């Protein structure tokens, strides 16, 4: 057993007969923390590394994935994030001056997208110097909006409160996620919120840089061991993501009650959603196939019509050719008659002279 990378307290124990393939189709064994109930993959290559080594590995992996993107791709990415900005703006009643911190900005697209919508109170941090430099250059950012550091450095040096702290697919990359959220809770006061989106345990998301997968039981543990309470949990089973809203406990605090009591129930919901999505795609494919078939039949009919027109044109061409041959014969006869007339005229002139 090894120490859980979320809570850094409990030991991860193998779950009997619980296996999943990673994104490279290698079989893995699932482990679950005996304290916080987060899930890990026992074969993860970074579980025994120090926190600093884990950070170095995360930076290296993300550089390999994103540092090669072109300016065009990055600008397209920022435009695509407008929908996410609209979601944040609506859910959290953001204004232009709202104070926001994004932890793990990666390519910086969300920072640019927020600025594009007039939300200038955004600050983000990114530990990768390579990604940070590219974002500064392409998105025309400054250190007012994007910092080349970890969230720990932000929490150590800043005193301001934030209306919203965003962990959008970044918390699962941070060793000791529990301490991370404890630190963040000190910077939202009584009215700010934290929003997290993390992957669920699902084959495409199983790789070494994902250090843990949160469960609803993990959220109960989080409430019991921090000042935070779970305001809301949403699932996107189409992509296998979980979105969590947190705020500090107040007078209206009600303990979070898990809805999905087990992994099996969670998987059943996910499978149902994926199955429905599959059926929808099958229906769309069938409709597309029928439309394509109808178009093919129409095209076949048009080709038959064109072929019949071609036959008619060929017949007309034959008629025209025969008329041309007849005309040539008549012209030849006329030329003969012309010569005969010329000869007769010549004979007449000779007779007149005599």
Descriptive overview:
This protein has 354 residues and is of the alpha/beta class. The protein contains 9 helices and 11 strands. It has helices at residues 51-66, 71-80, 82-92, 109-116, 129-138, 151-157, 177-185, 216-225, 263-353; strands spanning 2-3, 11-21, 27-33, 39-41, 100-103, 122-125, 146-147, 164-168, 193-199, 228-236, 241-248. Strands 7-6-5-8-9-11-10 form a 7-stranded mixed β-sheet, sandwiched between helices. Helix 2 (71-80) crosses helix 4. The longest helix is centred in the last third of the chain and has 91 residues, at 263-353. The termini are far apart. The mean pLDDT is 86.
- For the largest sheet, list the strands in their spatial order: 7-6-5-8-9-11-10
Class by alpha and beta content: alpha/beta
Name the poorly predicted regions.
none
Distance between the termini: 142 Å
What's the shape? elongated
Total strands: the figure is 11
The succession of helices and strands, N to C, reads EEEEHHHEHEHEHEHEHEEH
What's the tally of helices?
Answer: 9
Mean pLDDT: 86
User: What composes the largest sheet?
Assistant: 7 strands, mixed
């Amino acid at each position: 057993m090894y120490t859980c990378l979320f809570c850094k307290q409990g030991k991860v124990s193998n779950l009997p007969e619980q296996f999943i393939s990673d994104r490279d189709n290698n079989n893995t064994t699932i482990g679950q923390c005996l304290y916080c109930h987060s899930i890990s993959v026992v074969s993860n290559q970074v579980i025994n590394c120090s926190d600093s080594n884990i950070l170095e590995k995360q930076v290296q992996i993300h550089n390999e994935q994103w540092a090669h993107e072109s300016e065009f791709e990055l600008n397209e990415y920022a435009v695509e994030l407008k929908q996410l900005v609209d979601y944040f703006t609506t859910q959290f009643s953001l204004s232009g001056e709202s104070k926001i911190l994004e932890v793990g900005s990666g390519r910086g697209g969300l920072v640019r997208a927020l600025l594009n919508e007039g939300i200038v109170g955004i600050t983000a941090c990114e530990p990768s110097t390579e990604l940070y430099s590219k974002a500064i250059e392409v998105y025309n950012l400054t250190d007012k909006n994007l910092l080349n550091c970890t969230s720990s450095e932000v929490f150590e040096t800043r005193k301001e409160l934030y209306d919203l702290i965003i962990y959008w697919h970044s918390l699962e990359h941070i060793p000791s996620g529990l301490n991370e959220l404890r630190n963040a809770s000190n910077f939202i006061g009584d009215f700010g919120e934290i929003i997290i989106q993390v992957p669920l345990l699902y084959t495409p998301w199983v790789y070494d840089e994902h250090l843990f997968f949160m469960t609803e039981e993990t959220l109960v543990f989080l409430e019991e061991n921090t000042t935070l309470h779970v305001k809301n949990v949403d699932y996107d089973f189409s992509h296998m993501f979980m979105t969590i809203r947190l705020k500090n406990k107040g007078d209206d605090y009600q303990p979070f009650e898990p809805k999905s009591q087990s992994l099996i129930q969670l998987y059943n919901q996910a499978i149902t959603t994926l199955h429905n999505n599959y059926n929808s795609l099958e229906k769309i494919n069938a409709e597309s196939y029928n439309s394509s078939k109808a178009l093919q039949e129409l095209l076949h009919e048009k080709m038959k019509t064109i072929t019949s027109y071609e036959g008619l044109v060929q017949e007309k061409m034959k008629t025209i050719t025969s008329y041309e041959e007849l005309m040539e014969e008549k012209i030849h006869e006329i030329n003969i008659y012309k010569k005969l007339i010329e000869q007769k005229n010549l004979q007449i002139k000779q007779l007149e002279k005599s």
